[in-house]
Amino acid sequence: MRKSREEAAETRKRIVAAASAEFRRNGIDGTGLADLMGAAGLTHGGFYKHFGSKEQVVEESLALAIETMVAGIRDTIAAAPGKDGLDEAITDYLSPEYRDNLAGGCPFVALGNDVARGGAAVREVATSGFLDLVDTIAGQLQGLSPADARNEALVMLSTMIGAVTIARFVSNPGLSDTVLRQARQHLTKSS
Q1: Which residues span the domain enclosing 130?
Q2: How far apart, in whole angstroms, are the C-alpha atoms of residue 178 and residue 156?
Q3: Cβ neighbours for 155, distance < 8 A, ≥ 6 positions apart
Q4: How many domains does the chain have?
Q5: pTM (2 d.p.)
Q6: What is the DSSP letter of 80?
Q7: Which of 66, 80, 103, 161 sits CB 3.0–4.6 Å from 25 for a disulfide?
């Protein structure tokens, strides 16, 4: 029996969601089609019924991961607009819990090197999402011109991504926590 279009669309969404988590957990090169299909509860043989290539699922799963992260940050900011909301978003992002959430954490941290080696379409998805996040942060920076707010947001976001990246790779747990704490204190003081 053939699946309905609705069932096929739901299956595709399930694959993209599973791929999003698997790629962040294991990297793009470290995740085979069988791995991501297994995580979606499917056999790898059905992959090409839904996608033309692994690159296509990388694009869609990266877009989903970025959209989810940006929406979470926007929700945090909306709960307490202005400096308080932005400080809360920074605090959440630069927390040990977020650092340790490989499959659900920041796709820029988890996949930065993979994306840098990816095709133009994958890099465009990452660039668009990154700029969306920059604009979200810049919109919270009061008292600055739009250009200055955007430049400050670029520095803030780069610091956040770099701090979580470093906090994940250092072998000393105390140093990892210190990196997060110092970045968090610096950014919430200056925002």
Answers
A1: 55-190
A2: 17
A3: none
A4: 1
A5: 0.91
A6: S
A7: 103
